[in-house]
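A common beginner's mistake is to predict each chain separately and then try to dock the pieces by hand. The better habit, illustrated here, is to supply every component at once so that their relative placement is modeled jointly.
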Amino acid sequence: MCGIVGLFLKDRSLEPRLGALLTEMLVTMTDRGPDSAGIAIFGSDADDEGKLTVQSADPARDFAGLAEALGEAVGAAVTLEQKDSHAVLRMPLGALGAARAALGELRPGVRVMSAGDIIEIYKEVGLPKDVAARFEVSKMSGRHGIGHTRMATESAVTTMGAHPFSTGPDQCLVHNGSLSNHNGLRRELKREGMRFETENDTEVAAAYLSHKLDQGLSLGAALEAGLEDLDGFYTFVVGTKDGFGVVRDPIACKPAVMAETDQYVAFGSEYRALVNLPGIETARVWEPEPATVYFWNH
Amino acid sequence: MQTFDLSKSSLRELNATLHAQKASTNQTAWEIANPRGHHAIAVGLDAPIEVTVKGSTGYYCAGMNKQATVVVKGSAGPGVAENMMSGTVIVEGDASQYAGATGNGGLLVIKGNASSRCGISMKGIDIVVFGNIGHMSAFMAQSGNLVVLGDAGDALGDSLYEARLFVRGSVKSLGADCIEKEMRPEHLEILRELIERSGAPARPEEFKRYGSARRLYNFHIDNASAY
Amino acid sequence: MKDEKKAAQIPQTTPRQSWTFSNEMNSEIRRAAATGIYDIRGGGSKRKVPHFDDLLFLGASISRYPLEGYRERCDTKVVLGTRFAKKPIELDIPITIAGMSFGSLSGPAKEALGRGATLAGTSTTTGDGGMTEEERGHSNKLVYQYLPSRYGMNPDDLRRADAIEVVVGQGAKPGGGGMLLGQKISDRVAKMRNLPKGIDQRSACRHPDWTGPDDLEIKILELREITNWEKPIYVKIGGARPYYDTTLAVKAGADVVVLDGMQGGTAATQDVFIEHVGQPTLACLPQAVKALQDLGMHRKVQLIISGGIRSGADVAKALALGADVASVGTAALIALGDNDPHLEDEYRALGTTAGAYDDWHEGKCPAGITTQDPELMARLDPMAAGRRLANYLKVMTLEAQTIARACGKNHVHNLEPEDLCALTIEAAAMAGVPLTGTSWIPGRGGF
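With all components supplied together, the output reads:
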């Protein structure tokens, strides 16, 4: 149960403002989700660079000397940029897998928020405005981004239980609603080798889509398959390296509003999340149809 | 004309001020600036006043309205004019889900499109939509009239009771127990009157009428798949 | 001849009925095969489930000191809606009347409920059919239910209610909507609900204009704005997932949570729903209390518990486990005269017996309570029935006070789980109190 915001920029001149615009949208959705908040930013692509965004409950201890230790472990240069409880680890793309494995050994308390070429995910327990301020989201630039404010229903209010959920490279998913068959699906996906960090229904949806992508389906096809396999109520916004997608369940009673101009495509759980976007007065505003997959690519 | 700026005063002050207007008031015209998608704007009004909202609203604008005329100069969020009793609500832009839900009376005019579940469980309200309406509109609609100049989405009039549905454009699909019905002179008269009151750019002859087949009114096991 | 004689000498085993295919189950199979419709009935779960009967109070002796009956004060007043409402409701007794609709009940029955509740200093509640003059007029304090169907819903009644109860679920059928069959849709009921007369009316299971706690928060805001933030807003949930649902109701802004366990009644629904969906009241209550405690809102957001409350002992046990008020529905109808043995001949004529009559949807209630038939309705004298209800409510209050005094409490709300023990392991596990004679709470240790 939650608030979702998303912004996909067509006009590259807006990229420096992505974080600022998303932060404002996110804070507007505080009433819908006061428990925790998170944001995924898809920045610009640096050649052959990969990123891990990680989180620790004890950053002072966990992040000290981490870059050096990881660099040694994977035999490549690793840099670390700390932002509050999170840190972005940059390294050659090919070292990501090894670094992730080494991280578990070197710093068992560190959690991976996201991995990929460009994705960074920041999420924490607390009010959206505080979470956004801790990570200075408003200063971030990027090509598209997704934010989420959470009102927890059944699973715990924790950092890992916050959205977005990322279960594949440069992938993330946020959710408003409540799935009704996620336990069975989690069991199946576990048998297929997917790993889960939480008891959250949304993580199952994210892992489901990642699994389908791993099998070679396009994101569009994976979302279509999800319409068959995911039961319950959902509005999903999904981010990938190239863009973002939106899909609602066939009943579609969780809210969703979209706006499009020459400069951007925006998503909000409510219209008021969109009111400060440039040119919103003349934007095309509509609500996504049920059981229909929408996708925008750069 | 009284102006109320929601960026300067609270929603509570706004609604309390509007509720204080009695039938005898001479302050009949109110303008609300900076609605910016706020919820529950101008709800529970019960006086013949005119309220113009200059911008877009969030959930339940003009909810449970009686007597008043509320004009939204923008788009309306979910549940605009929900459970309206009387009066008029006009949305210049689009309306989100549940527009006019459970309304008992009055007139709701949506000049743009209405989203899903427009007129859900309506109980006597008249709704005129100049554009299209979304899926599951008029679900379990009990009475009143829904007039749509554009197209209707999936499952129009599912589990319909006695509400009358008039659609000018196409209907993507009809819901359980909803059928096309003969347009009789009395229906053309209802349409004529609603078109006139709402200022809709249409003629009664252009519409088709849909209503309940009344097959689900009493349970029968052989209809179980339709329940 | 010889063979027959021999056969007669062989002992026969007694014909054995199957536990699985009991006579009752077989009769249901035959009924379903003959009619092609699921069994619909009124009331709550009839199966035996762990209940407050399985708990006992410890009482005071040397380590604790009891209070003198009738002389030393033991308060019963409860204030509901102190969190946000400008006008909280004050009840003289920790017992209230649950929501029951006009339509399922007759006008005189609704009037009697109002009269009885008012005499006893408590509130009564509307149901899925709107507010009637009978009950508003005779109820000093009236809670107006806000239901998915919104039958008869209007802002005037909203403003003249003393509290608003947003109904999300019901213990008899968590996840299900209401049902009122054609026999009871009289002219008056049809008019109030804006439905054709004589149809089988099935109410929606979800609200038409909101889904989930994030939307509920906005709906509550709207209701508060319409009613000037005066009325306490209750949120009623069925005993499905009480920990989460209580948490979310509080997060969405409720002043009061109403929790209805599976023994809670309904006017009419599928028997399969009543008997197979939802949790017993005893199991639900501690989960809701835990949710309130985890939020730091216990006794700040009040908790009303219902579903199989029958006596002052039940009330006292519910309060001890953490409820603020217990609510009665089925028991109130029995006090009015439902299922009374003096009508046995008439119950027999309907193919049932006093105490078992639950075909409330058929509208043939001999007591004139669950009917819209003018002749049957006229049988219920609302004044006398109201008096019986008031007497019953007062007796329950006295019983609860008696227990509270015996435990040394000057207010019934000072009863605690530690004043209880359980007779069965099941009840000990559900209630979170020790098995009698031990300090063992299953799942929590002890000996």
